[in-house]
Amino acid sequence: MKFPKVFVQPQRGLVVAILLLCNAGALAAGGVSAELQSHLDACIDSHLDGWVAFYKEAHANPELSNDEMASSTRVADAFFAAGLEMTRDVGGHGVVGVIRNGEGPVILIRGDMDALPITEETGLPYASRVKVTTLGGTRSGVMHACGHDVHQTVLVGTAKSLSALRDHWRGTAVFVAQPAEEIGQGARRMIEDGLFKKFPKPRDCIALHCAADLPAGKVGYTSGWALANVDSVDITIHGRGGHGAYPHKAIDPIVAGSQVVLALQTIVSRRIDPREAAVVTVGSFHAGAKHNVIPDTATLQLTVRSYGDETRAKLLDAIRQIATDTCKAAGCTTPPDVKVLEDDFTPATYNNPDLARHAGDILRKTLGADNVLELPSVMGGEDFGRFAPAAGGRGFIFWLGIVDAERFAAAQKPGGEPLPPLHSSKLQADPEPTIRTGVRSMTTLALSLLEAS
C-alpha cells in the first residue's frame, strides 16, 4: 500500500477493543497502575507474533545508511495501521508518526533503521542475504549488526500500544524512525529539515539501544554522560617518493606516519586529565603499492572519543600539533593535512539525571529490580544525543538486553564462548523476550511521562 508524503488517519475503534475501563490517575508520579499495566501486557500478548514477524522481515532485508527506502515504508505502514498521523521523507528517509491526544506533555520516541556493510554469519533461517557494491567497489553483505531491526520493531510496537491505550493518557507522542545513524548524520538532517518546527516540540526525548552483553529480559541505564563524542580525523603525510634501495634520497612518509601513530598514543596518557575519559585510535594506515618504492604520501584515519567539549578540543588540538611537529622532525618539507570531518561528528549523549532517576524507578517497577542494571558510560557513539538539546528538553537512552538466556549463561562459565559484540557478523537477538521487554519498557516509560486521562 502506498501513501502520500503526509497522511492523517482518524483513530479506529477496534484498536481499543482490548481495553476495559481503567481507574483515573493511572499515570501517577510513581508510575503506571497495575490495572493499566495489565491492559498493556494484554496488548503486547495480542500483537507479539506480528511484531516478531516484522522484526524478522526487517532483519532479513537490511539497508545501508541513506538507502532505507523499504525500511521506511515498512515503518510507515505500521504507523498508518496504528492510526498515527504519518509523514515520510523527513531528513532523507525519516518517518515521523504523531498521536495528538489532547492537552498535556509532548514526548519523542526514536528508533533508527539503517544497517551495516557486514556479511551475516549467524546461520539464522531469516539471516540477511543482501549484497551491495560499496563506494570502494567491493562486494559486501549487509546486516543489522547493531540491532536497528529491534529498534524499529520496538518503535512500531510502542506506537501501537500507546495508540491502543489512548483513552488512558493525554498529551502528544511523536515517533521518529531515523535514517543514517551509523554514519552520524540522520538526527542532524531530520532536525535541519524542521523536525521541531513541523512537528510538536518534545519536553522529553527517549530511546533504547540493543546491548550485546545483556540477556533478553534485562535492561540497563546510565545517568549523565551515556555515550561519547565521536570525531573522525584524516591525516595526510607528505614525503618525497623514491627507490627503496636509496632511502637517503627520499623523505619516507611511512616512517613519519609510524612515528605519528606512536606519538598520538601519548595524548591520552600524558595530556588529558586521568579523570577524563578519552580515546585516540588509528584505525587505518595506507601508503605505498610496491615493495621497493617509497611513496610520496601516507594517510591515517583516526576515531577520537570524548565526553565534554573541553576534552574534545584538547584532543583535536593535540592531534594537529603532534602530526605537524612529528612530520617536521622527520624531515617532511610540507606540513601534513589534518582534517576533522565535521559532517561525521556525533555529539556525546547525555542522560538528564532527573529523567534517568525517574526512568530507573519506572523500569524497576515494570521489570523487577533484578532486571534493571545501572551501567557505566561507554565510548561508543549515538546521534540520538542531538535531539534533546535541539528541542531544549531532556534526553534519556537505555540499553535493552538481546541475548538468549542459555547462550548468555554459557558465556559466563570459564572457557565459555564469548558473546559476539555489536557490529559483529554473528550478532543475533532472541526475538520474543527482547521485543516484549523493549515494548513493555518503552511504553511504560512513555506513559509515565504523559498525563493520566
What does this protein structure show overall?
The protein is an alpha+beta fold and 453 residues long. The protein folds into two domains: 6-10 and 28-226 and 348-452, Zn peptidases (Aminopeptidase, 3-Layer(aba) Sandwich); 229-344, 2-Layer Sandwich (Alpha-Beta Plaits), CATH 3.30.70.360. The chain is built from eleven helices and 22 strands. The protein has helices at residues 34-60, 69-81, 148-164, 186-192, 195-198, 253-270, 309-329, 353-367, 387-391, 405-412, 431-449; strands at residues 6-7, 27-28, 31-32, 85-90, 94-101, 106-112, 131-133, 139-141, 169-178, 204-215, 219-221, 224-227, 229-238, 242-243, 279-287, 293-294, 297-306, 337-340, 349-351, 372-374, 394-403, 451-452. Helix 1 crosses helix 11 and helix 3 packs across helix 11 (431-449). The protein is elongated.
Question: Keywords for this structure?
Answer:
single chain; 453 residues; alpha+beta; Alpha-Beta Plaits; 2 domains; 26% strand; elongated
Task: Please summarize what this structure is.
By secondary structure, this protein is an alpha+beta fold.
Query: What do the pLDDT scores average to?
Result: 94
Which CATH architecture of the largest domain?
Answer: 3-Layer(aba) Sandwich
Helix content: 25-40%
Integer count of domains: 2
Strand content: 25-35%
Report the end-to-end length measured between terminal Cα atoms. Answer: 34 Å
Query: Can you tell me the CATH topology of the largest domain?
Result: Aminopeptidase
Unreliable residue runs: 10-29
Main beta sheet strand tally, sense and closure: 10 strands, mixed
CATH class of the largest domain: Alpha Beta
Helix/strand class: alpha+beta
Please tally the helical runs, counting DSSP H or I stretches of 4 or more residues.
11
